[in-house]
Each structure stands twice: as structure tokens, then as C-alpha cells.
């Protein structure tokens, strides 16, 4: 094996995060829908006189842009740095994406609490929740859990027998 093949095999791929293909697509679709809802609600939120609503609307449009840039970079093909940002976003762990998306979605709600900001950011926040759930990992099977419980019970019985000084 050459050094290039070794380096390529040790490199972290997006497939190493434990997400199945369908869950990865679910997260991407939720990101696209979240971007669409943020963009529409953000533009609608900017049609006002209140400066906090305008700031929240601009932030929502920026959130939509970030979601599109990270999840579907082919929508931003005329932006030179889109592929570089998307490649960097793919290297992030799911919990990092969860914090980023949830934080981006919560800021406008705190800035200007209204139905538009709340419902416009709901799907973007749900995308962050999906990535957060992905960071928890897969659910274990019942057989492995039963083995662990049986082993733990045996260890506890052995410990109880040795602490008394005499076997029971």
C-alpha cells in the first residue's frame, strides 16, 4: 500500500458518522425545506417598519442562504466559494451541524418573537434536531442489551460474594 492509499483510507468520510443513506437524505430534504421556509418568512418579515423585525428577517434570509450553501451547494453554482463551503460543512460532525442550525434558527425568534419568525424557523430548527438525533447514534439491539444486563448482574453477585469475606 502506498502512502497515498493509506492517507485516503484514514481520511474521515461523511459515511463514518453512522448515518444511513435515507437519514442523510432526510436531513438534506429538511434543510432544503427549512431554507425555503426561512427565505419566504424572512422576506415577509422585512415588509414592516419595526427595525427588529427587519433585522430578524435579514437574519432569516441569511439562515436560508447558509442552509442552501451547506446542504445543496448545486443551488449556488454561480458562487465561487460554494463548493469549498459545502465540502467543509460535510466534514462537520452531526452535533456541530445541530448546534449551528439550531442556533441560526433560534436567534431571529429571540430578536423578534412573532408567528412569522417562529414558523419560518421551525423547519430549520427541525433540521438541527435531526442532526442532533443523528449524533446520538444507532439504537442497540435487545440481544446485546440483555447480555450486558446479565453480565452486569453476574459481576454484582461476584462483588457481593467477595465483599463478605466468605463465599455464599
Main beta-sheet strand count, sense and barrel state: none
How many DSSP H or I helices? 8
Give the domain tally: 1
Tally of DSSP β-strands:
0
Structural class computed from helices and strand pairing: mainly alpha
Instruction: State the shape.
Output: elongated
Helix content: over 70%
Poorly predicted ranges (pLDDT <50, ≥5 residues)?
Answer: 1-14
**Radius of gyration, taken over Cα atoms and rounded to an integer in Å:** 23 Å
User: SSE order in H/E notation?
Assistant: HHHHHHHH
Beta-strand share of residues: under 5%
Overall pLDDT confidence: 82
Q: Measure the end-to-end span.
A: 58 Å
Plain-language structure description:
One of its GO terms (biological process) is vesicle-mediated transport. Its main location: membrane. This protein is 75% helix and 0% strand. The protein has 168 residues and is an all-alpha fold. The longest helix has 26 residues. The N terminus is likely disordered. The protein contains eight helices and no strands.
Short description:
The protein is mostly helical.
Question: What's the helix and strand layout?
Answer:
Elements: H1 3-10, H2 21-46, H3 51-71, H4 82-91, H5 94-111, H6 115-120, H7 122-136, H8 142-163
Helix pairs in contact: 2-3, 2-7, 3-5, 5-7
Protein name: Calcium channel flower domain containing 1
Subcellular location: Endomembrane system
Main location: membrane
Name a few traits of the molecule.
elongated, 168 residues, 8 helices, 75% helix, mainly alpha
